[in-house]
Hints:
This protein is α+β, with helices and mostly antiparallel strands. The protein has one domain (4-115). The chain has two helices and seven strands. Strands 2-3-4-5-1-6-7 form a seven-stranded antiparallel beta sheet, with helices on one face. A hairpin with a 7-residue loop joins strand 3 (35-37) and strand 4. The longest helix has 14 residues, at 83-96.
Amino acid sequence: MPRSVIVLSSDPDLFDNVRALLRTDPRFVDGGDTVHCDGSMAPLTNIYPVENDPAEWDDRDVATDAMPDPRTSSLLIFESRSPEWVAEVGTLLAEGLASPVWIVDSAENVWSADQIDPARVALS
Length: 124
């Protein structure tokens, strides 16, 4: 599986809003059911929605006081090999979307989208 993080928000239209925001940035390509970067202007990237199975969150300890309940949230997969790029895109999302966005990395660390530490975010 490609290296990735989960993008999480209480916004029921999360993917549509992310796609509309990133469509304004020439580094991103709107592929309909995915947003991606082809590697020419930014690291290879795929961002796409996934169905949320609430039971998958039962054994995870990722809740924070500020983050919405992941069992009832909208989810996207954000595939990238670059932690710096994940942090940069996280900031774009945090600054450009109306609803707060959270990132859950592969070590189940929870990050506010605008506070991702590229030296510590886990991609696997």
